[in-house]
Amino acid sequence: MSEAEQLKELHRLLTTPGYELTVTRVLAISMSIALVAVVLWLVRTRRLREEYTPIWMVAALALAIMSLRFDILYLVTRAVGAWTASSALFFLGDVFLTVVCLNYAVRLSRTGLQVKNLAQEVALLRADLDELRPRE
Question: How does pLDDT run across 44-67, given as a tens digit for each residue?
Answer without folding.
Answer: 999 988 888 888 888 888 888 888
